[in-house]
Design goal:
Blueprint (H helix, E strand, L loop, with lengths): L2 H24 L5 H27 L9 H16 L4 H25 L5 H22 L3
Helix pairs in contact: 1-2, 1-3, 1-4, 1-5, 2-5, 4-5
């Protein structure tokens, strides 16, 4: 697989993880203002995910989604971490940690695949900025 496909699949997988995680967490959250914020983030992850899928397919690449193991692992981690603390602050902290990991991985991948096509780099930049914005917005709920 070439660098363009690898970078696009990173965007695809990262946004897919955001979709999966937020889908589960939105069902747990009780604070309506916080829930609306998460629903907005969910929609943006969907938009980025569809854009990555479209670019993958238009370039003749297959999308490589997150594995069933990673989905199950994430599902159980969220359940365990919210078992005793479903507070808005705790959930915001969990999401900030996840977005920080996304930021770190995005920066590493941008450097690793700096020669990727411009449109692909722009989508990666969009995901990076979105993750950084999520962190700023979620701080309000700590």
């Amino acid at each position: 697989m070439d660098g363009n496909a690898e970078l696009l699949n990173f965007v695809y997988q990262n946004s897919q993880m955001g979709i999966e995680t937020l889908h589960q967490i939105i069902g747990i959250v009780e604070d309506n203002k916080f829930k609306k914020r998460l629903e907005s983030q969910y929609k943006e992850y969907e938009k980025i995910n569809k854009a990555a899928e479209k670019l993958l397919n238009s370039n003749g690449y297959d999308e490589k989604g997150i594995s069933a193991f990673d989905k199950i692992k994430t599902y159980f981690m969220i359940n365990i971490q919210t078992l005793t603390d479903k507070s808005t602050s705790h959930i915001a902290e969990m999401l900030i940690i996840g977005s920080n990991m996304g930021v770190i991985d995005a920066i590493k991948n941008l450097k690793k695949y700096k020669n990727a096509e411009q449109e692909i780099n722009e989508l990666m930049d969009q995901l990076l900025k979105f993750e950084e914005d999520n962190i700023k917005e979620l701080k309000e709920y700590l």
